[in-house]
Amino acid sequence: MTQPAPRSLRSLHLDAGRAWRGGQRQVFLLARELRARGSEPLIVGVRGAPLLERAQTAGLATAAAPMRADWDLRSAKRVRSIVRTWHPDVVHAHDARSHAIALIALAGDSTPLVVTRRVTFSLKSVRVKYGPRVARYVAISEAVKSAMERDGISPHRIDVVHSGVPTPVVQVRRDWRAELGWPADTVIAGIVGAMTAEKGLEQLFHMTAWLPDEAIARTRVVMLGGKETGPTSIGPLKAWRAGFVTEIYDAMAGLDVLWHPSLEEGLGTALIDALALSVPPVAYAVGGVPEIVDSGVNGLLVQPGNVQAFSESHVQMLAAETRERLGAAGPARAADFGVERMADGVEQVYYRVLTSLS
To answer: Which overall architecture, per CATH, does domain 10-164+338-357 show?
Structure first.
């Protein structure tokens, strides 16, 4: 039976990210929700990073540390000073670099350390970083927990708390066909993310080789994220790089299908956003993705790396009735991954850690 978590605790959140990605979004959403519940979160990040800028705009307490490397002694000294001045009830490290820095900063200090793990690839420095100094681990999916167990972390030290996203509010749905002069019968496939290699963009080039001519003629691609903007192509497919989009829900609501070709994914919050917006995804069944997408119910999943199957799934999505059926089931599933539920789970972790010390 879960216990009510303390509502006025102080939590110090460390994140070394220099860009605005899924992990930084989760730190921001968690801190904002904890503050709304009467707690006092403090975000320590890199000066000038989007996370700190957004947190400051939202009125959240922030502090800066350079965090240039995993074992950055200067940053550890800075974090140690913040801990001694601010007296948090718990320190929460949200990425691998801040995890290492926190271990140094808390040497000789009794403040409990909680660490979030967001990826499924193998742990590094297991003996050094994953020892008893960490009070609890938060895995963002069962897949991440399983990966940690394979590397020797006891399952009794890991709590699964799925990432959470807010219910999207669409102000003005983007009409990509009208904006870009694409035909009315075009099916808009969207890719959302940092547009980096690990997100599987190369997979799409291989996938297009399996698309029939009719699918190529009817498909256009919008790429939401990254720094580049303007027209481009993915194999024979015409595409548009929209770059970083501020009103991301408006942009995603204008898609017909979400393509998620990543071959490694801790969970995949872009998938949750798409489901909430009734945009059915085609994705590889990797990591925590099957914990979100029920294939054939609210989207289509294919075996990792099977570009022919990915292509065939997109061809299925060309049928409006298929998109409508799968899309209609999306919002109910997305509701299982709300910010409130995520914050509940993290609070319960804090509660277990603090009560074990009393």
So the answer is: 3-Layer(aba) Sandwich (3.40)
